[in-house]
Amino acid sequence: MASLKDLRNRIASVKATQKITKAMQMVAAAKLRRAQEAAEAARPYSERMAAVLANIANAMEGDAPTLMTGTGKEDTHLLVVFASDRGLAGGFNAQIVRLVRQHVRELDAQGKTVKIIAVGKKGYDAMRRDLGNRIVDRIELRDVKQLGFSNAETIGEKVLDRFEAGEFDVCTIFFSEFQNVITQIPTARRVIPAAVETDGAQLTANGGVYEYEPDPADILADLIPRNIKVQIFRALLENAASEQGARMTAMDNATRNAGDMIKKLTLVYNRQRQAKITTELIEIIAGAEAL
Question: How many Å apart are CA 171 and CA 80, to the nearest integer?
């Protein structure tokens, strides 16, 4: 049984931990609002970009760019996995990596080759044990104070360079889509070939017909790489908001658990202290009676 001094030290230690988790919860809550606003602001632009691609693809008559149509095969898949560079975010990183592992198992069953680009230190650490031989590149954003489109451009250029070099046929990005503080949904989205819906119908709007200048193929050649970077930027923003939401929830739970532990330890301490006082009183009374 722990002594009174050990119990006091343990209570003091848990209280210190509680202060840290409470502070981290408040910091995450402060960062969450800004990250959530950025993620929600990026969604309409990303969705509209996909709609524009679909509209232009409908109007095409000739051959579309390879980034839209693909290489004609699906033998090699590149998975770009977005995770966090910092821990203490509950199951945030584990959920994304779990989805990646499931996708890799499905591709392995089909006899496909899988390559991975890990964005975020924690994602790389979680995958390197069983998927380390598939990781071809890793990117850390630990020193980035505020995410910008330049970060997405850097990642997008790496992906496009590998595609032009013929290193893969299909590219899918994995990230956590922010819903609310409690819910973050692990999401997989294909970006190469561009996932656009085409039905071959003539494009109209309010009774008018769009005419493109320059040619739709030339527009797509410039627009599709831009769309890839936009989708990557959205993934970064969604991940940033999801990370802060998960961290806020995790630190709130940790603070509550620390409070419960303090109550239990305090109860044990008081009982043991009372038992010690009672024992000393009995010894004093017994000694007095013996005299």
Answer: 7
What are the pLDDT digits (tens) for 145-204? 778 888 999 999 999 999 999 999 999 999 999 988 888 999 999 998 887 654 444 444
Provide the β-strand partners of residue 78.
115, 171
Buried b (16+ CB within 10 A) or exposed e, 119-147: bbbbbbebbeeebeebbebbbebeeeeeb
> Amino acid identity, residue 66?
T
d(CA 29, CA 22): 11
Distance CA(231)–CA(70), nearest Å, equals: 18
Q: Which residues contact 151 (CB under 8 A, 6 or more apart)?
A: 141, 144, 233, 236
Beta bridge partners of 188: 174
Q: Quick: pLDDT tens for 9-28.
A: 999 999 999 999 999 999 99
Cβ atoms within 10 Å, residue 1: 6
Is residue 228 a contact partner of residue 152, using CB atoms and an 8 Å limit?
no
Helices and strands of the chain, counted as H and E runs: 6, 7
Residue 147, CA distances (Å) to 2, 151, 233 in order: 49, 7, 9
What's CA 174's distance to the chain center, in Å?
8
Integer Rg of the chain from CA: 28
289 beta partners: none
